[in-house]
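Regression test attached.
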Amino acid sequence: MEPAEVEFLAEKELVTIVPNFSLDRIHLIGGDLGPFNPGLPVEVPVWLAINLKQRQKCRLIPPDWMDVEKLEEVRDQERKEDTFTPMPSPYYMELTKLLLNYASDNIPKADEIRTLVKDTWDTRIAKLRLSADSFVRQQEAHAKLDNLTLMEINTTGTFLTQALDHMYRLRANLQPGESAQSQDF
Amino acid sequence: SFTQGSKLEIPLWLAKGLHDSKRKIISVEPPKIYKEAWRTVFSADANVVDLHKMGPYYYGFGSQLLNFDNPENPEIAQTTFINRFRRIMDSSQNAYNEDTSALVARLDELERALFQAGQKGLNDFQCWEKGQASQITASSLVQNYGKRKFTDMDG
């Protein structure tokens, strides 16, 4: 997958906005949205929130987890544990990027948040590589990694599957009965 | 023409065709790098070996050699790969917007392809993070056509 595709999926997540316009409930194929009343918070998917924000029709309310203290806890937890901690959102990376790019004026301490999320991401990716290395070294057949997000899997996935394919072929070469076909003449 | 017992260099495909465990027309001697002597080098530090110089298709060629019933250590390719894996992974996923020629110099072709995969994952992510994933850019093919301005064209 492309990161843009992962982001596309992330944009279905709900976020709270405060609109400055009125609109009756709208019926979309994916579900109903609204009604929208000025000053009243309402939950909408991120794709719509970003669009409305760009058109200056709303302000965004950051999700609960997008807060310096909470993210510091998450980052510290991640650094402490060998396994992956559950993330406050399966799309934490994408949502952070989107909301901070388009609505940083609605998010207090935006720069700190960006740094904290990036630090957490870096720690997790480093853990992923450590896991991959020990997986290859011990020639495991099966691994289970909980609490990884799609973006993390997507960034290292191609490399890892190719490496494992190669390992498999090398291992298969060692099995007896792999003799080449030869013609009698 | 050649006589029995003489030593020749022939391409792998020919050796494969001539090889037959039953009739033993030829016996194959693998290139130096696949032999016991090199094993000490590999086990000391597999990352140091220049697999590109020793024959750029180390793993592929090595796999083919296993067809010839040679009693050399068959696991060396696997062990080598396992030892080199970490460095390939780390360098391919950390080197962003840099000249990577030094990093890939000692990798064989298969490892280089793997390196490319790692780079692509990294580059795609970085590009997305900077917000460039949604920018429209001219295709690199078009840019290479050697721009000619409309006013410069003949006729």
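Expected vs. actual: identical. The two ends of chain B are 63 Å apart (CA to CA).
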